[in-house]
Specification:
The complex is a heterodimer. By secondary structure, chain A is an alpha+beta fold. Chain A is 47% helix and 12% strand. In chain A, the strands form three sheets. A three-stranded antiparallel beta sheet of chain A has the order 1-2-3. A three-stranded antiparallel beta sheet of chain A has the order 6-7-8. A two-stranded antiparallel ribbon of chain A has the order 4-5. In chain A, a hairpin with a 7-residue loop joins β7 and β8. Chain B has one domain (86-354). In chain B, α2 (21-58) packs across α12 (250-275), α4 packs parallel to α12 and α10 (208-225) runs antiparallel to α15. The chains are: A alpha+beta, B mainly alpha.
């Protein structure tokens, strides 16, 4: 019967993981070749949620295309929007008021925490522990409520506009962020107790899915995936935008490059985000929240590139402008796509259970990969 | 004092007055059968709702709270839904084995019920090799899983079944050796006599550290044997969608589900019988007053209390730990649990010979 149920020429078992599978967190399709439980090859098939966002953006004006980018990496939509706003401000040479800059950074870091919270819960669930998922969502819910108050939305915020932010922060914003920070500091120890320190968890993560620094760079990995290999790549440090160069925070680096290192980078990154928020939350300058901009934005005839650090890595926008109201050509460099390309390399020789754990630590968001 | 035994004797006497001896036997067999099946169904319903409530409590949720008072009838509604669902047999499946597997699973679970003493003097079958019988029958459950995985003609099912085969066969050794320590101490395979030997104290208290170790090994091994998290590799939903029962639907799925929960109940009942004194009440040395109060609690409550405590423990594991990987699972058994339980068995044997227990 084995022959009937789909072995390949070499007699290996070929299994389709996805597009509907609990571990892929979306419509990712992996064709994995197995020898018993051991993985010989992983072949990602993309395109199930391709919406041709890049092409769509060519027919949208510079004010409109920001809103489409929220639908790519929906877990860090603020940061995507931020990149769009930055590239337009760069092209138009708009000076963003300091109040708007601080609000933007605050919201970026809140988004990063929310994204990592969700990742933490989902990854624990990939490893078979259900309970952390609910605990992570409890804290993420607080951030979502803050976002809802200030931005009016919980997932696709669309709060960043060229020249600043859409509206001033809600009066409750500062107290509720402080409340959240207090809550977070209590809960992060609980996370460590529940997952990080668990012996089964550590055995599942350590020395699994090792990615060397050279390979990571050649695959174009970025963000926590690359920083776990010991390569400094935080856009906030290397190409600082907004007020990141005035802030006191560390770039989190681990050296082992295994699943556990990627896990620890994200956990420690949350603490750094909290540190940034603590520095800013009492020092939001008074003033305008939005610079005066022209109603119709026309970027000069040129090429522009802007990168930001999303929760998953380096997100870049490349715009070719012909001087019109819409971009001539637009290209997004999404972190998930490059990080996914390393999956085959690190999964070979591992077990099926490891593959799921590795996919968890790469923190894939499928609409970000497919666009 | 209310007890099952008195009810059973009353029924037996009434039947003997009314019918001839042959008919009494036949009717009693039918009654026992109905009793097992209804106990089975009730246990399934109770354990499912218990699991959902326990998980909800651990996961800061409310759990089912719509059907019936506090959602207690939720599993009834679920059963009804599963009963009326179409049970699909996939095209490529081996039809006979595919339909046979859940039935075999449930038969094994039912057979295991026989030698368990649910209360004082209340059991279906007083067999003198109860321990041997239980370990022999429980090893059959792997056949139904292998059958289901193979016959489904699904790669996920096959992988799940193979994992489960390796897992159950290995962990049976540790479970068996852990139970053997008590057999060595009591010198009997009869579950009733094992309970009787605990009249002056449960084995977990009077067996010193070695018995406590074997209790822990027993709990780990039976968690693995019943395919419960963190050893739920056979179904590992994040890896194999649903493992060996991926292709099952409707009542056939429900039978697997029921068999899993009843198996959990049975292994916990065996654990309670062997290590925690079965229906024996909790006694402390010469505190006559205290002991008398403990005696006043019906023996069935003692038995079910201990069993459900162990079930809660196993549920607690499930909702706390991440899943092990297949090689780590086998390492744990062959490199750690098995050597430990072998040495432990030797220590207990020495203890029994030298009379170092209470």
């Amino acid at each position: 019967m084995l022959e009937e149920i789909g072995n390949n020429e070499d007699g290996d078992l070929v299994i389709n993981v996805g597009p509907q599978h609990p571990a892929t967190h979306g419509v990712l399709h992996l064709v994995i070749t197995l020898n018993g439980e051991t993985i010989k090859k992983v072949e990602p098939h993309l395109g199930y949620i391709h919406r041709s966002i890049e092409k769509m953006c060519e027919s949208l004006t510079y004010r409109q295309f920001i809103y489409v980018t929220s639908r790519m990496d929906y877990l860090s939509s603020h940061i995507n929007n931020h990149a769009c706003a930055l590239i337009i401000e760069k092209g138009m040479q708009i000076e963003v008021p300091p109040r708007a800059q601080v609000i933007r950074v605050l919201l970026d870091e809140l988004t990063r925490i929310a994204s990592h919270e969700l990742w933490w819960g989902a990854m624990a669930m990939d490893l078979g522990a259900f309970t952390p998922f609910f605990h992570a969502f409890r804290e993420r819910e607080v951030i979502n409520d803050i976002m809802e108050e200030t931005c009016g939305a919980r997932l696709t915020m669309n709060y960043m506009v060229p020249g600043g932010v859409l509206d001033d922060i809600h009066p409750n914003f500062i107290p509720s962020v402080k409340e959240f920070i207090k809550l977070y500091k209590r809960k992060i120890d609980e996370y460590a107790e529940m997952v990080t320190g668990n012996i089964i968890f550590q055995n599942r993560m350590k020395n699994v899915g090792i990615l060397s620094a050279e390979d990571a760079i050649s695959f174009g990995c970025s963000g926590p995936t690359l920083r776990a290999c010991g390569v400094s790549c935080d856009v906030r440090k290397i190409y600082p935008y907004e007020i990141y160069n005035q802030l006191d925070f560390e770039e989190v680096l681990e050296t082992s490059g295994d699943s556990f290192a990627r896990y620890m980078v994200r956990i420690r990154e949350m603490n750094q985000s909290v540190r940034i928020i603590e520095q800013l939350i009492d020092n939001i300058p008074e003033g305008e929240f939005q610079a005066k901009t022209k109603a119709v934005i026309k970027l000069p005839k040129s090429e522009f590139y802007q990168r930001v650090e999303t929760a998953r890595g380096e997100f870049g926008i490349y715009i070719v402008s012909e001087g019109g109201t819409t971009p001539y050509r637009i290209k997004f460099r999404s972190p998930g796509f490059s990080n996914l390309s390393a999956l085959d390399h690190i999964a070979r020789g591992g077990k099926i259970g490891d593959l799921v754990a590795m996919m968890g630590t790469l923190d894939l968001v499928i609409p970000d990969i497919d666009r | 004092m209310w007890s099952f035994n008195k009810i059973a004797i009353a029924i037996h006497e009434w039947l003997s007055h009314t019918f001839s001896a042959v008919w009494v036997t036949v009717i009693e067999m039918i009654l026992a059968g109905i009793g097992v099946i209804s106990l089975f169904a009730i246990l399934g319903l109770v354990l499912v709702i218990m699991e959902r409530k326990v998980s909800a409590w651990m996961q800061i949720r409310l759990g089912p709270n719509r059907v019936g008072p506090k959602g207690l009838l939720q599993s009834m509604a679920d059963t009804l839904k599963l009963l009326v669902k179409e049970s699909i047999t996939p095209d490529g499946a081996d039809k006979f084995l595919f339909n046979m597997a859940p039935i075999l699973g449930i038969i094994v679970a039912m057979l295991l019920m026989a030698p368990i003493a649910f209360a004082k003097d209340f059991k279906m079958w007083d067999i003198n090799i109860g321990v041997l019988y239980v370990s022999a029958i429980s090893s059959l459950s792997v056949i139904s899983i292998l059958m289901a995985g193979w016959a489904s003609n699904n790669k996920y099912s096959l992988l799940g079944a193979m994992r489960s085969g390796a897992q159950i066969v290995s962990y049976e050794l540790s479970a068996g050796l852990a139970v053997l320590t008590i057999v060595v101490l009591t010198g009997t395979l009869n579950l009733n006599e094992i309970i009787a030997s605990q009249a002056n104290g449960w084995w977990i208290f009077k067996g010193h550290i070695p018995i406590f170790i074997s209790f822990i090994i027993f709990i780990i091994a039976v968690t693995a044997e019943t395919n419960r998290a963190p050893f739920d590799l056979a179904e590992a939903e994040s890896e194999l969608t649903a493992g060996f029962h991926t292709e099952y639907s409707g009542m056939k799925f429900a039978l697997f589900f029921l068999a899993e929960y009843v198996n959990v109940f049975i292994v916990c009942a065996i654990g309670a019988t062997i290590f925690l004194g079965g229906w024996m009440p909790f006694h402390i040395g010469h505190w006559e007053g205290f002991n008398h109060i403990m005696d006043f609690i019906p023996s069935s409550i003692w038995f079910f209390g201990k069993t459900f405590f162990l079930i809660f423990l196993i549920m607690w594991f499930r909702w706390t730990f991440p899943r092990l990987r297949i090689d780590q699972l086998l390492n744990l058994e062959w490199k750690y649990l098995l050597p430990i339980s072998m040495v432990n068995l030797l220590v207990v044997t020495a203890m029994a010979i030298l009379g170092w227990h209470f």
